[in-house]
Specification:
Blueprint: H1 11-18, H2 23-27, H3 30-37, E1 42-45, E2 62-65, H4 68-76, E3 81-82, H5 86-89, H6 105-116, H7 119-141, E4 145-147, H8 148-153, H9 156-165, H10 172-182, H11 190-216, H12 225-231, H13 241-272, H14 275-282, H15 287-298, E5 303-308, E6 312-314, E7 317-319, E8 324-328, H16 329-332, H17 368-385, E9 386-390, E10 397-398, E11 408-410, E12 412-417
Parallel strand pairs: 2-8
Antiparallel strand pairs: 1-2, 3-5, 4-12, 5-8, 6-7, 9-12, 10-11
Helix pairs in contact: 7-9, 7-17, 9-10, 9-13, 10-11, 10-13, 11-13, 12-13, 13-15, 13-17
Length: 420
């Protein structure tokens, strides 16, 4: 891995990059992104991919990519920028399926995943269960002052994971903890992170093993994603037992935490401007554009890593094969050259669909439709059952454990009942 530095690098910019992992920057990274977008990519970020453990694993110095055009270039050229992550591969963490694969294996895996991840399984099979559970969650909390992240946003996505994979409903709390540890955003000790990674892996080894045994014994099994991964076949190829385990883990860690932050960020926008709640409650057609602008301005996923396979140029900066790049989707979503007044929340932006929160190209997030379904059901249920929300962002706090995700760690508010 190359460790050269930028010739004539601005000392101030190097300090900016060095301070990107400070709690202050993690909680509000956008001023830093703005400063970095005015320059060519800067080298030296020492940050951690999902699953790795700060204090145990050693990060590679990475080029910081923040402009929309440059982020788009990285996303659009998987033949130059590899997703195979040597740092994660050498850590205690299970490797993620699709996320950490390149073509041609990535193509085979994605085709197999598409056969399992059908609209019926991610929509029809869970919508009514989710509506029922979200309704019960809101009923439990309406009229009360709660931490929205703990009582609502942190529950819904993990419950969905139990539906999708046929897991015991009560296990959702374990999934929340394991996903938080894996995504390097919450405050865990190195030992706690390693323990969580091992618990997560062994949990799914056991669950997948049980499912294989039931299928082989001719028992009737549920038609969920776990079964679909086991039985999926594309052009004569299927998944190994270990790959099924890793697909289940990937869904949990990639889907549970980021969607939790998305749900919280939606409520944060409504606390920022209290008029939103009534506007959306009265006109539900605004919910989808509201969600998209939140994904653009406050999208949880901040950045991903790639390993450079051949010499190239990004944003006027020569980058060598073997170098490491960190590209920031969240910074691209705030690029003034693409999104006018990017810090403002503007409903109905004509180009809002250009946001790259869910990636682009071969690595576009397969779970994006599911995250939108969860958010839409949550919002509609709250608008049906609540007259308003009360609270102030001054009482909230954003997570400061890592730069991978932007979201609230605590979001106190009150769900006001429609009954006086």
């Amino acid at each position: 891995m190359s460790s050269h530095v930028v010739d004539g690098a601005d000392t101030d910019l190097n300090e900016v990059v060095a301070n990107m992992l400070s709690p202050e920057c993690i909680q509000n990274p956008y001023p830093v992104y703005k400063k970095l977008r005015s320059q060519s990519p800067v080298h030296g970020l020492l940050d951690y991919p999902p699953g790795t453990v700060p204090g145990v694993d050693t990060p590679f110095p990475a080029w910081v990519i923040t402009r929309y055009a440059d982020v788009d270039y990285v996303l659009s050229n998987p033949d130059i920028f590899s997703s195979e992550d040597p740092m994660q591969a050498n850590s205690s963490a299970p490797s993620l399926m699709l996320v950490n694969h390149d073509k041609p294996r990535h193509t085979d895996l994605r085709n197999l995943a598409k056969m399992a991840f059908t609209p019926k399984r991610i929509h029809d099979n869970i919508v009514e269960r989710l509506r029922s559970d979200v309704s019960a969650i809101v009923d439990c909390n309406v009229g009360q002052s709660i931490d929205f992240m703990e009582e609502v946003a942190g529950v819904i996505p993990a419950l969905v994971m139990t539906y999708l994979m046929g897991l015991p409903k009560e296990d959702y709390k374990k999934l929340v903890r394991w996903a938080n540890a894996f995504m390097v955003s919450s405050d865990f000790t190195p030992q706690e992170r390693q323990n969580c990674n091992e618990e997560l892996f062994h949990y799914f080894v056991a669950k997948v093993g049980e499912r294989y045994s039931d299928i082989e014994a001719g028992k009737e099994v549920t038609d969920d994603l776990m079964t679909a991964f086991i039985t999926a076949e594309y052009e004569g190829n299927g998944l190994s037992k270990e790959e099924v385990v890793l697909f289940c883990i990937t869904l949990v860690v990639a889907g549970a935490e980021t969607t939790t932050y998305f749900l919280g960020n939606l409520m944060g926008v409504m606390l920022e401007d209290s008029s939103w709640f009534e506007r959306l409650k009265q006109d539900r057609s605004l919910i989808r554009p509201f969600m998209e602008e939140c994904l653009r301005r406050d999208g949880p996923p901040q950045r991903l890593f790639r390993c450079v396979l051949k010499d190239c140029e990004v944003g006027g900066q020569a980058i060598k094969a073997g170098d490491w790049v960190a590209f920031f989707m969240a910074a691209a979503n705030h690029d003034e050259s693409v999104f006018e007044n990017p810090e403002q929340f503007i409903l109905g932006r004509k180009n809002v669909s250009k946001h790259v929160t869910f990636g682009r190209g071969i690595h576009h997030c397969l779970g994006a439709p599911l995250a939108r379904i969860e958010a839409e059901i949550m919002l509609n249920t709250m608008f049906d059952k609540c007259a308003a929300i009360e609270g102030t962002l001054a009482n909230s706090s954003r997570q400061s454990g890592g730069l991978l995700a932007y979201g609230f760690s605590t979001l106190p508010l009150k769900l006001v009942s429609t009954n006086p």
